[in-house]
Amino acid sequence: MPMDPAELADRLGRWSAGRGPLYLLLAARLRRLVDEGELPPGTALPPDRAFASALAVGRGTVVAAYDQLRLEGRIVRRQGSGTRVAGPPRPGPRDTTGAPVFLHLLEPRDDDVILLACAAPTAPPAMLLTAYERALSRLATVTNDIGYHPSGHRLLRRAVADHYTRRGVPTGPEQVLVTNGGQQALSLLARTLVEPGGTVLVEAPTYPGALEAFHEQSAAVRTLPVGLDGFEAATRTPGPRPKLAYVVSTHHNPTGGVLPALPRRRLAAAADAADVPLIDDEVLAHLAFPGQDTPPPLAAFGETVISVGSLSKSVWGGLRIGWIRAARPVIDRLARLRAVHDLGGNLPAQLAAAELLPHVETLCQDLAADRRARHDHLRAELARRLPRWQAPAVTGGQTLWVRLPHGDGDSFAQTALRHGVAVLPGSGLDASGGSGEFIRIHFLADPGTLTKAVRRLATAWRSYGGGHDRGAPAPRSMAI
């Protein structure tokens, strides 16, 4: 059976951002996937028309790229048999896996593409540099410590525990596991709590990295609306009980909503009653705009809540420090698995994080007004140049969830990339198969870059066939 065109388009990454004819750029990227084994011998490639539609190019571009690779002997094309990577199919399971939908957007590039897809601070703050100076001074005094701490250094575990206690969730260091970022935390939880085929309840849409972690475990992902509305009924349906549920309760990724206190209480109570572990992703929890209060953490309302945190969005993505806050038996299980795969994280980074964590809320507050100003600037530029796009305001976080007036996010993302802007199509964030008409873009860039990006998006939209935007209704608000 041929590969899904959208899946192959995701693997291609920013294939069209270079110089030269599109068919040669496409052939070059496909050639690399073949040569590196990401497309093994025997792989059936998508039909011309379907692949062209997913890439938002003419069929002739795909035909010419395929013909180029056929001449090189890398693929075989036969009437009635389709297009395949040259060579006999490999027996047994594939030894490569599909890269996450957002992986190609994280790799550094020298091109002129403006990245509005993956959001994180673009430089370490001065506070982090000071924290490292203090950490190195402490490191100079270390004796009788070989540096392996699979559960995390005691100072950082204590700092994370105090962080939750200050927020109304009494926590001890034994309830904390330090991880190499929030993504590793999600992967460890998936491996520990979900066996292949086990059901995981997620929001639609949701954070794509969580979906990747669950899919990697071959979980049966079941979707509910944002806020996990309908959770209680879902746990009572006939069949196996869900093994896990996942929610982003504060500054939801991607819609930006904040789950109010009463629904939090009901959701946590329902999870407790059903004995279903409920992961609350708090990576964005401290990114409220000025004057915006957020409810207490979901963990304040239920015993089965597992909190995941990270410093990647509030401080800097290069500081690979995350954590899991849960009941001690869960932490002990996670620590045993962590020790199998990773004997411990970077100790200087953990010592720096321990210095920094007590001040992270102050850091976020100091930068909140600037984030809101950039949010407002991006929305104003979109309203001016693309008035039919619906880009509802949010009260915090880093991204806008934008609804296109027609077409689909997957094909438009390819068009936008060819015009020098990377956006994240909504389909990759929705396990239900919905959200195809959405894209996610961030507002962390400086105002000049955001203006330039919207100018390029408007040009891409006209090329895509969306040039008749005048006289459109104002964007609607979206909330959980």
From TrEMBL:
Q: Spell out the molecular function terms from Gene Ontology.
A: DNA binding; DNA-binding transcription factor activity; pyridoxal phosphate binding
Q: Keywords for this entry?
A: DNA-binding, Pyridoxal phosphate, Transcription, Transcription regulation
Does the keyword section mention Lyase?
no
Give every HTH gntR-type domain span.
20-88
Top-rank taxon of the source lineage equals Bacteria
Pfam family of this protein, just one?
GntR
Question: InterPro entries this protein is in?
Answer: Aminotransferase_I/II_large (IPR004839), HTH_trans_reg/aminotransferase (IPR051446), PyrdxlP-dep_Trfase (IPR015424), PyrdxlP-dep_Trfase_major (IPR015421), Tscrpt_reg_HTH_GntR (IPR000524), WH-like_DNA-bd_sf (IPR036388), WH_DNA-bd_sf (IPR036390)
Q: Which SUPFAM superfamilies match?
A: PLP-dependent transferases, Winged helix' DNA-binding domain
User: For this UniProt entry, which residues form the secretion signal?
Assistant: none
In which family does this protein belong, per the annotation?
A: In the C-terminal section; belongs to the class-I pyridoxal-phosphate-dependent aminotransferase family.
Task: Spell out the protein name for this chain.
Answer: GntR-family regulatory protein
Q: What is the lineage of its organism?
A: Bacteria, Bacillati, Actinomycetota, Actinomycetes, Streptosporangiales
